[in-house]
Amino acid sequence: MKAIAVQPGAGGPDVVSRPVPEPAPGEALVRIHRVGVDGTDYEVIEGTHGGVPDGDDRLVLGHEAVGVVEDPNGTGLEAGQYVVPTVRRPPPGVETNDYFERGDPDMAPEGEYVERGIVGAHGFMAEYVTSPAAYLVPIPDELAPWGFLVEPISITEKAIEHARASRSAFDWRPESALVLGTGALGLLTAAMFTETLGYERVYCLGRKDRPHPTIDIVERLGATYVDSRETPVDEVAAAYEPMDVVYEATGHATHAFESIDALAPNGVAALLGVPTDWTFEIDGGRLHRDLVLSNKALVGSVNSNRRHFEAAIDTLAALPDWLLESIVTGIYGLDEIERAFPSATAPAATTDGGSGVGPDDDTTIKTAVEFMPI
Amino acid sequence: MKAIAVQPGAGGPDVVSRPVPEPAPGEALVRIHRVGVDGTDYEVIEGTHGGVPDGDDRLVLGHEAVGVVEDPNGTGLEAGQYVVPTVRRPPPGVETNDYFERGDPDMAPEGEYVERGIVGAHGFMAEYVTSPAAYLVPIPDELAPWGFLVEPISITEKAIEHARASRSAFDWRPESALVLGTGALGLLTAAMFTETLGYERVYCLGRKDRPHPTIDIVERLGATYVDSRETPVDEVAAAYEPMDVVYEATGHATHAFESIDALAPNGVAALLGVPTDWTFEIDGGRLHRDLVLSNKALVGSVNSNRRHFEAAIDTLAALPDWLLESIVTGIYGLDEIERAFPSATAPAATTDGGSGVGPDDDTTIKTAVEFMPI
């Protein structure tokens, strides 16, 4: 079968040939339909995040997948059923551990998991994959064409769940949200705030010039586009309003700390970006004091678990078609993967790229690779 | 009647004469038994925090009080009942607002509250005070001598409630806690971790030389004393262990950010100190990345509400007598208030003083003023 693999740090991804995997007991065989491309894939390609499985020199990419059950292999799944695989698995040679047992693999610390297509385990960019049935989340047929968006949406489901949990000790009534980043994840998250989470006022911060399709999407959602070159994060509260929630999806490290200034009293910033080391000055006394006297919180969030995937499928069903059609700017076959990975050979990412935000050329928002048409 | 008042920034507190207050409808008249002294009182005395009521040039101090109902005034309280007053009230001329209505006055932003004895309203260091009955929390007679510890304990009840809430979206099983600060609040909090919250391993960081009574208290609790001069906050994880909870009660601004390094994956730091402005360098990229990839959280917390006072009374009942007797190093009458406020005329506070941590001479841990013996 064909797969898309990469040697991290040694160039773009290639189509390779691999044997069709055989499902072990408890595993199903899944034929892959589509797999999304995101910022994490670029980090893996560049070798700045993740890594190949032990004993291998290449990694099969892909962690945002949707496919159809080809062989249930006695697992209780049904042949022909569409499924979205979750990403984390126990490390090699380990059947389970406390985090997986509790249904919280997303909370496992480094060393207690591998991530398919990211670190230590091959991904889903292949014609066929196998997976324990417990990690395959059924998705209705009519949503299957968009099923590769379930994983990124699940990332936000988790981050928002944790942000809300942090505010659950009092009667919190958030109305305003600021999304940092106008990549695919930022746009999907802005849409969740306006369409499914019921926020009254939503802002989306980026650094794009008008006219731009991402700004059009922000405004069609009824959200407000904030140009970070005119209004830096720490000036948003004064220029617009203090925010009940800030959702950081840029990976720009100063944003994590500037978010404290953007927050309203009792607000929470969910941090999702994965910056590299960067030393800079902050007025730590003022920020610390403000966190305390205004009851603010910062919550880091990575990955997601099966519950978040299930919630993401409900969210996907509730998002308008025009939005999905506008965000997904290209679906490419194996004969044109360079179009699915436009940034893999492009210059360095801009600062509003970063974790999960996706490619950074000027018109691409979200791409996917199609292994099998429906 | 006699009261203890201060002109912020203009010297130590004095005994002054005031008329006995008359309870308005809905208010009870309370005769004060004892009022604790803490770091916030020193900040008010120095004029760095809080402020006098409009139209006044002096503030009656005191926010950690216990008293006895002298005149229920038809409120449903009983004469002779011991009560602890909460601290926040609606601003002058405002009967209530959303935060007070919801039972969350501790979450009210600046301008939506006053704090008795701290900002905008006279405190409880007086022979008699009046208060709406809703802000008077009954305490069993046998606990009344220690009732002035209910307010500081309630501060920790709230901080821990918010910290736990932030971890409530997954199956969190914390075992280790690090308390930054060995003042009265730090010691009470360390005792809560060991005695009532069931933490298996508790550490308390300070900068005292052995032998010292606070170190003796830490060790009698079964906790480990960490000398910050040998092991800075960001080295505690390596030297001891990564912590599920960090509780910051020093007001030392770098601690808020160094706490991220002290945390275990999935850990939470509760921040309570109130530092002044201070600009310094941090490796914000590394800290941001660690918050995200290790699912860590920072939660600021100030003040407390009636529920936290009620929980604090239960906690007080569960703490061992030896601990309370060791922490409370002096109870002084109105004829020796300079002994109740030993730091008001002392040199500048050390860096492990700060919010709620109390006076900083070498043997005093916690003092209170007694207005009426039981």
Automatic annotation (TrEMBL), chains A, B:
Catalysed conversion reaction: D-glucose + NADP(+) = D-glucono-1,5-lactone + NADPH + H(+); D-glucose + NAD(+) = D-glucono-1,5-lactone + NADH + H(+)
InterPro entries named in the record: ADH-like_N, Glc_1-DH_arc, Glu_dehyd_C, GroES-like_sf, NAD(P)-bd_dom_sf
Domain Alcohol dehydrogenase-like N-terminal: 25-141
Start and end residues of each stretch annotated as Disordered: 87-106
Residue ranges of every copy of the Glucose dehydrogenase C-terminal domain listed in the record: 144-342
GO biological process, one term: non-phosphorylated glucose catabolic process
Residues engaged in binding substrate: T40, E115, E151, N303
Binding site for NADP(+): T182, G183, A184, L185, L272, G273, V274, S301, V302, N303
One example GO MF annotation: NAD+ binding
Keywords on record: Carbohydrate metabolism, Metal-binding, NAD, NADP, Nucleotide-binding, Oxidoreductase, Zinc
Enzyme class: oxidoreductase
Signal peptide: none
Family, similarity comment: Belongs to the zinc-containing alcohol dehydrogenase family. Glucose 1-dehydrogenase subfamily.
Protein's UniProt name: Glucose 1-dehydrogenase
Species of origin: Natrinema thermotolerans
Gene that produces this protein: gdh
